[in-house]
């Protein structure tokens, strides 16, 4: 009887000692390195600047990926509003997970000498710059932006402050310069008739006064 009780006690002790080891083994088998939000784009940033009347977007992308989980390392900037979206290719991240540079604002363009010759929301018609709803005009309004690699991060971005655009000398959109000229020409052509009519009225008034005096 005493031997049976002793044997049971020894068995129970061995079983209790083996439970932590089994639990640790199970935890080790199920553990996957890197899972738990270790991949991030924290620290990435973009900004806008108007340089020599050219709107630019400067960017600095930082990928933190300690376990090398990200296989596609091309970075993009996505700009959106309530109705539109456009994606700008920024390039491939370096081996250190870094990428920086600048790109033209959507709708902007430069000539061979680097001078500005295009802006979002403007069109050149007959050598005259006019405002338009095309050519990424929406990017000058209320927009949101995010940097996308495999993770993504939202960033603050807006069109450069100040007058970063052409000198608008044309008629407003929807009003042609020809119609404005037509009105001006019409006024000029009626001027002789107005002068002639005024002269007739003066002569008539003079005759009326003269006849009144003779009557008295």
SSE order in H/E notation?
HEEEEEEEEEEEH
Distance between the termini: 164 Å
Tally of separate domains: 1
Overall mean pLDDT stands at 76
Strand order of the largest sheet: 4-3-10-11
Compute the number of helices: 2
Q: What is the approximate shape? A: elongated
Poorly predicted ranges: 14-36, 175-195
The chain-level structural class is alpha+beta
The biggest beta sheet, please? Answer: 4 strands, antiparallel
Work out the number of β strands: 11
Rg over C-alpha atoms, rounded to the nearest angstrom = 39 Å
Query: What share of residues are in beta strands?
Result: 25-35%
Helix coverage percent of residues?
A: 25-40%
Key features of this structure:
single chain, 216 residues, alpha+beta, four-stranded antiparallel beta sheet, three-stranded antiparallel beta sheet, 2 helices, 31% helix
Explain the layout of strands and helices:
Blueprint: H1 2-30, E1 45-51, E2 54-62, E3 74-80, E4 85-92, E5 98-104, E6 109-110, E7 116-118, E8 122-125, E9 128-131, E10 144-148, E11 152-155, H2 177-215
Antiparallel strand pairs: 1-2, 2-5, 3-4, 3-10, 6-7, 8-9, 10-11
Written overview of the protein:
The protein has helices at residues 2-30, 177-215; strands spanning 45-51, 54-62, 74-80, 85-92, 98-104, 109-110, 116-118, 122-125, 128-131, 144-148, 152-155. The protein has two helices and eleven strands; from the N terminus they run αβββββββββββα. The chain has one domain (38-199). The longest helix has 39 residues, at 177-215. 31% of the residues lie in helices and 28% in strands. By secondary structure, it is α+β, with helices and mostly antiparallel strands. Strands 4-3-10-11 form a four-stranded antiparallel β-sheet, with no helix packed on it. A three-stranded antiparallel β-sheet has the order 1-2-5, with no helix packed on it.
């Amino acid at each position: 009887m005493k031997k049976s009780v002793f044997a049971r006690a020894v068995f129970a002790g061995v079983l209790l000692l083996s439970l932590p080891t089994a639990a640790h083994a199970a935890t080790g088998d199920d553990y996957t390195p890197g899972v738990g939000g270790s991949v991030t784009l924290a620290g990435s940033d973009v900004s806008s600047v108007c340089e020599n009347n050219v709107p630019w977007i400067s960017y600095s992308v930082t990928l933190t990926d300690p376990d090398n989980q990200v296989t596609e390392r091309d970075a993009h900037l996505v700009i959106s509003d309530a109705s539109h979206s456009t994606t700008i290719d920024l390039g491939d991240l370096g081996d250190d997970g870094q990428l920086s540079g600048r790109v033209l604002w959507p709708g902007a363009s430069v000539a061979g000498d680097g001078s500005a010759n295009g802006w979002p929301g403007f069109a050149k018609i007959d050598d005259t710059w006019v405002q338009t709803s095309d050519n990424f005009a929406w990017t000058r309004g209320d927009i949101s932006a995010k940097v996308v690699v495999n993770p993504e991060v939202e960033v603050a971005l807006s069109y450069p402050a100040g007058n970063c655009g052409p000198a608008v000398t044309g008629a407003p959109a929807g009003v042609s310069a020809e119609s404005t000229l037509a009105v001006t020409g019409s006024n000029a052509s009626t001027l002789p008739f107005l002068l002639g009519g005024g002269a007739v009225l003066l002569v008539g008034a003079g005759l009326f006064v003269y006849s009144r005096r003779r009557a008295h």
